[in-house]
Amino acid sequence: xxxxxxxxxxxxxxxxxxxxxxxxxxxxxxxxxxxxxxxxxxxxxxxxxxxxxxxxxxxxxxxxxxxxxxxxxxxxxxxxxxxxxxxxxxxxxxxxxxxxxxxxxxxxxxxxxxxxxxxxxxxxxxxxxxxxxxxxxxxxxxxxxxxxxxxxxxxxxxxxxxxxxxxxxxxxxxxxxxxxxxxxxxxxxxxxxxxxxxxxxxxxxxxxxxxxxxxxxxxxxxxxxxxxxxxxxxxxxxxxxxxxxxxxxxxxxxxxxxxxxxxxxxxxxxxxxxxxxxxxxxxxxxxxxxxxxxxxxxxxxxxxxxxxxxxxxxxxxxxxxxxxxxxxxxxxxxxxxxxxxxxxxxxxxxxxxxxxxxxxxxxxxxxxxxxxxxxxxxxxxxxxxxxxxxxxxxxxxxxxxxxxxxxxxxxxx
Length: 413
What we know:
By secondary structure, this protein is mainly beta. The chain has two domains: about 5-55 and about 295-410, Jelly Rolls (Sandwich); about 65-290, 7 Propeller (Methylamine Dehydrogenase, Chain H). It contains one helix and 31 strands. The protein has one helix at about 340-355; strands at about 5-10, 35, 35-40, 45-50, 65, 85-95, 100, 115, 120-125, 130, 155, 165-175, 175-180, 185-190, 195-200, 215, 220-225, 225-230, 240, 260-265, 270, 280, 285-290, 300-305, 310-325, 330-335, 365-370, 375, 380-385, 385-395, 400-410. The longest helix has 17 residues, at about 340-355. The radius of gyration is 27 Å and the shape is elongated.
């Protein structure tokens, strides 16, 4: 077998679902595992691949107290010096942001699914959705006249003769639509709850957490037990996002504190999980990446590559890489296996061990380091059937090019 040179191209996201092939689709293999990297590097925001720091999940204050103040904003206090408390306010979601509202003492208990829609405050209790009078968040009298279309009311996510499931999340969009989710269902309320229509969108796809959704203009992304989905704010076009690429880590997930956020600057959906790692979905390039803001260390696996052929070993003769200017030093390592799956599994285990601060030496056949710029050849002389190239760095870096040369080296026995 003649020598063959394998050009390392920046991976098209993290994806273990597709078949392993000699020739990559779209000029790039997917990565079996990566951490704190993506295609757009943080050094110059070029599309060449490199390290990045993910966005932090925004925090939401559930409630706050309102105090009596002067025109200058100073607290008015009692003769004992205590501020005068007017009452609590609660943070709720709207069609574009979050606002503070004062629902009054007779309001139902607040929850993480609270929202403001059509100038009504919506609250949830198990399978019941309660909404205040239109324009008055303190009026929760459900005995109003039927002709009073602005009255407070309650409803369920159900059709006639059905009992609705427990409501998990409400997603308002302008004054036109309210997406409603249970664990396994999606519903859409069009218009006002007293005069509008309630329609079922799906009886199989729901949401896993009250804040497991985000919006990009008229598109809503949400995480279900089946993976990441998108749906129009009007309830149309429900579909899985990259069903052939969705990571197994995002399927059958149980995380009631999951938070999704969309950032227009990088056109990415951030899937913040309470278990590590969290995930990033690049909507522009249809790619998933993992990230963890508790560490700056970054890792990426290239491959797995067949070094020989189906019945023969291959031997790596040399490896060479170019790292972008101003990059910190990058460590390269060769992770091998008897099969493509074994090489990929060993690579992920090595990265996880490195992040945990434990030994990963049993997974690594050879290692070295690259500095910014064009690096000299290294000659590891590593023999295996399959191999992954693992690049890691403790700082900021960007990828330019890399290659390795292999040749046949004996039959598999």
